[in-house]
Specification:
406 residues, alpha/beta, Rossmann fold, pyruvate-formate lyase- activating enzyme, 3 domains, 6-stranded mixed β-sheet, 4-stranded parallel β-sheet, 19 strands, 36% helix, binds iron/sulfur cluster, S-adenosyl-L-methionine, MiaB/RimO family radical SAM methylthiotransferase, EC 2.8.4.-, Methylthiotransferase_N, Methylthiotransferase_N_sf
Length: 406
């Protein structure tokens, strides 16, 4: 089998779970041109992402050995029939948990089908992710993910704990908790802060990282657990901001103002000293004026992000924003995105330089390198085993935002 991942961190985590189940059932991971089955995990976040998904399915379906191509993910949820028409052996399976059984069934491995489902099998990765939440109840006007993924839902407490602890038992020293709207994780009154607290309580020498969390979901309880964890809850928050303009945020359907966003950033810095705050931001949302773009730049400077993912707005058919008549000229979008990327590079350099001389917990990922709690690559002394979590003090920042603790 071969795997093609398109899209976000959640997709990556889900594909890892699919791969682990298939490997457990006896499948071997091989390059696409040799595979009997190709799983394409699609993403529909932008029109561009959707086009990429169709291209990947079409390319796999055209391989000379005619593999079974199983398409899953957001595009598979939204456009079942269209994807199925891309090739004779294309199978669309919107429910990711059922993909392994579907692959095995299509290959005629009947002994495996029905028993292999994704999730709950440790992936054996150095920094595995565990998806504890899916779906979203927000309706951001540029987004189709909430339509594809459905309403917010969470793994039951025991299941979430069991899946994370299985990764720890398999040797992981860092586990990334992921979800489409992770901050909405809840099983009764047991939320993300409680889950993190219990995991920290029950394990030793394991760091936990939150993938991405909507700003309004960052509660004082969560910050307090992070702040008191001694770095075992990674000092890192990825808080999608999308714009620094109150008007644009409102038109996007985002649930906070710039001032509220900055209050979350300040509270995080107070509770977790040295925390790395990262964001997603969209340049050129429909109707974005020069003044509104300047407001975005100002918010980014004020937030002093450690990392920024800058996206050029691209029309996502089926969303309210795509139907808006005041689309921004693509050249203006490109110029705004480039200004934001320049600022992002400067701020990253500043954040990385400030880590020099500070003790860091580094998860060693091989090749003499690892990642800090704030997600900066760091060179470590020779001879440290891959997968270990070690405390080091970087003595220099090298070009390419690389710390040196050798
Ligand atoms: S929070 Fe907004 S952008 Fe994120 S998945 Fe939900 S609707 Fe989409």
């Amino acid at each position: 089998m071969a795997l093609v991942n398109l899209g976000c961190r959640v997709n990556r985590v889900e594909l890892d779970a699919i791969a682990a189940s298939l490997q457990k059932a006896g499948c071997e991971l091989v390059p696409e041109p040799d595979a009997e089955a190709v799983v394409v995990n699609t993403c529909a976040v932008t029109g561009e992402a959707e086009a990429k998904a169709r291209k990947a399915v079409r390319r796999a379906a055209a391989l000379p050995q005619a593999p079974v191509v199983v398409a899953t993910g957001c595009v598979a949820n939204l456009f079942v029939d269209e994807l199925a028409e891309l090739g004779d052996r294309v199978v669309v399976e919107p429910i990711k948990g059922l993909v392994p059984a579907r692959v095995l069934g299509e290959l005629g491995w009947s002994e495996g089908s029905g028993t292999a489902t994704a999730g709950g099998t440790p992936t054996g990765r150095t920094r595995p992710g565990v998806k504890i939440q899916d779906g979203c109840d927000n309706r951001c006007t540029y987004c189709i993910v909430w339509k594809a993924r459905g309403a917010a839902r969470s793994l039951p407490r025991n299941e979430a704990l069991a899946q994370v602890l299985a990764e720890v038992d398999a040797g992981a020293h860092e586990v990334v908790l992921t979800g489409i709207n992770l901050g909405r994780y809840s099983d009764g009154g047991f939320g993300l802060a409680e889950l993190l607290d219990e995991l920290l309580e029950r394990t030793d020498g394991v760091r936990y990282r939150l993938s991405s969390i909507e700003p309004p979901e960052v509660t004082p309880a969560l910050l307090s657990v992070m702040g008191q964890s001694g770095g075992m809850a990674a000092p890192f928050l990825h808080l999608p901001v999308q714009s620094g303009s109150a008007g644009v945020l409102k038109r996007m359907g985002r649930l906070y103002t710039p001032a509220e966003y900055l209050r979350v950033v300040d509270a995080a810095r107070e509770a977790v000293p040295g925390i790395a705050v990262a964001c997603d931001i969209i340049a050129g949302f429909p109707g974005e004026t020069d003044e509104e773009h300047v407001e975005s730049v100002a918010l980014c400077r004020r937030a002093a992000f450690a990392n920024m993912h800058v996206f050029r707005y691209s029309r996502r058919p089926g969303t309210p924003a795509a139907a808006s008549p005041d689309q921004v000229d693509p050249r203006v979008i490109a110029a705004r995105a480039s200004e934001l990327r320049g600022l992002a590079r400067d701020m990253r350099r500043t954040y990385v330089a400030a880590r020099v001389g500070q003790p860091e917990l580094v998860l060693v990922e091989g090749g003499g390198k690892g990642v800090t709690g704030g997600l900066v690559e760091c060179l470590v002394p020779d001879g440290i085993r891959e997968g270990s979590l070690v405390s080091v003090t970087p003595h220099a920042a090298l070009p390419g935002s690389l710390l040196d603790a050798r």
